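Journal club side-thread
Mid-discussion, someone asked how the predicted structure for our own chain would compare to the paper's figures. Pasting it here so we can look after the session.
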Amino acid sequence: MSKNWVEIIAAAALLSVSVIPGVSAAQTLVDQYKGAKSSGLVGEKMDGYIGAVTQPSASIEALISAINIKRKDVYFKVAEQTRARPDEAAFTGGCTNIKNTKPGEFYQAPGGSWVQRTDAAPQLDSKCPQ
C-alpha cells in the first residue's frame, strides 16, 4: 500500500467516527473516544482497531464497539479501492494510528502488551510501512 493510502486510511478512520446521524451524537462519540483514550481506558491496537487497556465498563465496551464498527467499514472501503485485503488495510491503519499516538496514550506493542507512549517513537511491527 502506498504512503498516500496510509494517510487516507488514517484520515478516513478518524473522520468516520463523526459520520453518524446528528451532529451532537457524532460529537458525543468523538468526545467520549478522546476522553477514554487520554484517560488510558482504550488504546490503539496493531490490527487497526481500539481495545480496552483495563477491564472495561459497559459504556467503554459500547464505545469500543461503535468506533471499531466505523473503522471496519473504512478498512473494507480502502481495501476495495486499493485491491488489498481488509486485514491488510486494517493493519496499515493500525500502524498509522500507533504512530500518531501522543505521549501518555496507550498502544499495543508488537508482542501484544499495552505500552504507554512516551516522547520516544512507539514500538512498531517490522511489517509496518515506513
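Post-session note: The beta strands are 42-44, 50-52, 106-108, 114-116.
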